[in-house]
What we know:
The structure holds three protein chains of three kinds. By secondary structure, chain A is mainly α. Helix content of chain A is 64%, strand content 1%. Chain A has a two-stranded antiparallel ribbon. The C terminus of chain A is likely disordered. Chain B has a single domain, classed as Methane Monooxygenase Hydroxylase, Chain G, domain 1 (Up-down Bundle), CATH 1.20.58. In chain B, α3 packs antiparallel against α4. The longest helix of chain B is centred in the N-terminal third of the chain and has 30 residues. Chain B is flat and about 75 Å long. In chain B, 37% of the residues are buried. The model of chain B has no long low-confidence stretch (mean pLDDT 77). Chain C is mainly alpha-helical. In chain C, α1 packs antiparallel against α2 and α2 packs antiparallel against α3. The longest helix of chain C has 26 residues. The mean pLDDT of chain C is 81. Chains in contact: A-B, A-C, B-C. The interface between A and B is large, with 92 and 64 residues.
Amino acid sequence: MNPTTFFIFTTLLKIVGIVFVVILPMVSYAVYAERKVSALIQDRLGPNRVGPAGLFQPIADAMKFLLKEDFTPAHVNKFYYWLAPCLAMVPAITTIAVVPFGSTLFGVPMVIADINVGVLFVFAIASLGVYGIVIGGWASNSKYPFLGGVRSTSQMISYELSLGLAVIPIFLLIGNLRLTEVVQYQIDHGWMIVPFAGDWRNPLAWLLAIPMWISFAVFAIAVFAETNRLPFDLPEAETELVGGYHTEYSSMKFALFFLGEYAAMITGSAIIVTLFLGGWHFPGIPDGSHGWIFGLINIFVFFAKIVVLLFIFIWVRFTLPRFRYDQLMRLGWVFFFEIALVNIFCVAAILAFHAPPFPKHGLQADESDHGIPGGKMGPAVA
Amino acid sequence: MTPNPYLFIIVFVGVALVFPVIPLGLAWLWRRFFQPSKPGMEKNATYECGVESLGDAQIQFRSQYYLYAIIFLIFDVEAIFLVPFAVAFTGLPVGAFIAILIFLLLLLEGLIWAWGKGCLNWAK
Amino acid sequence: MPSFLFWLFAGVMLIFGALVIINRNPIASALSLVVCFLGLAALFMSLDAFFIGIIQVLVYAGAVMVLFLFIIMLLDLRAEERRTMNWVAFTGGFVVAVSLLVQILAVISRTQMAKQTFPPLASPQTDDVRNVGLLLFGHYNLPFQVIGVLILVATVGVIVLSKRQLR
């Protein structure tokens, strides 16, 4: 098999693997986990009828969604009513394409498309996520969904700014937008939330930890707002808007909205893990070049981190009350936006003062690597 | 030679498009062949409080939302200018740092002005 | 990028660009424009201008079009859908468009440059975001500040205008 065919074959395998073998079960079991964890928090039992400890509940849910009446109300705009659930799902999944979910396995890098504008790609796709919701709300031609859709759009674009500004300190540090480089930097110099790990004796590296924590906090909270999770779930606040933008939806179309939200949660967690929590790296575990078993462990570590974050998502949902809408907007615009902006300056100033732990390729990036993942750790079959 | 990774993004977008279409298609087929159609006035009604729905829903809404969208657009452009700055930071002279400082102060001033005008306050 | 992808995305752009005008429903037009922008972004990327391509999606598809959708939703859509086609204006517009096309084709067919095939671009050995940054902040500081002032003016203008309208 020649290298190009091998590369195409492995990439297609990765695409199918990540979408149908990882994301799909993960999304359905995230719903199960949500119900189980909420039951734990509220001292209930949760789903426990289908299979051992209710483990087959997602399958039963899927069957139910499929067999429920596929009903389109007469007052909706038919085409857009059907289009909206798809639009809600697609961006949530597409984001995962640039995230490195493991080191290497049998010499194949565990990332689908290692592009040189990785993070911007994530934001670009995330910014398309509003269409599903606003179209769904509008096409339903009903008051609750319409309000939910418009609210949600406003909220998402407001927090998108904080989201974008919060990651800029990382790129001041790394000088590269490529997500594999972000992970590599964190392996060499410590995770982003502990930037002093690689350089214990440098007080400025310790100082750097403060803005990094602020960045991390702002980013994580903005992800909560972007995914419409409590305490930012105003678009679907059941006490005032019934179900928000999906009030008029039922059966499989509702399921897609619902699963799209969980898929967005998973991809959001994946981005947090990649940017701040070291990606697939865990101290003491070597990467995939030391044997395929380590490659597998790296992938496992990455998804384990995502699961921890998902647990926090659920925990927060059943702990905190909801914001009022004006509070939410003020928080986004007046607090997080400014704090993220000032944070960039702090990092830039700190970096200007001490010889920063820039990666070796920092200045030579122009000559060395380019838009092809095979450059450094491509398939070893050449 | 390895193909451009962007090709795989295109493939991936294709897969992501197929992903929601499969369950929708299955549900549609199921309805088409197995489900009895039982339409009704109540079923078709708009979901509201139980009272007959009044008027159309696709109406003009509060213009505050639209003001936020405009301000968002402006600051989105600003944030994008910060990205090449951040990436090129290691190779830039001090002048560039001052330049971006002035740029950001200008925009921050705009934001504070907007805030002072009450554009960022939801409740009036 | 293989040429069939160029034809694919160029075709997508043309079809959805036409749909922007043909659709009677403004929301449908706006969504067609989004797809058109996505096609444009893909074309930019096929020229290895990754940064520009992503910005195209981020700013135009993600921010400008959301604003458009909001504005459209503020309009009375029913009136727009009821409006019948003005055949005189349609014919006039069609004639202008066709004559423009003929003109462009005539000019291009006479230019010697157009007959040459371009040498293939050098493969992208650089990080284009970084290069944009180095160039913008290294050599074009003054224009950059002017942009800053321009954005400030835009902020002020938008708020003054919309505040006046809200009253």
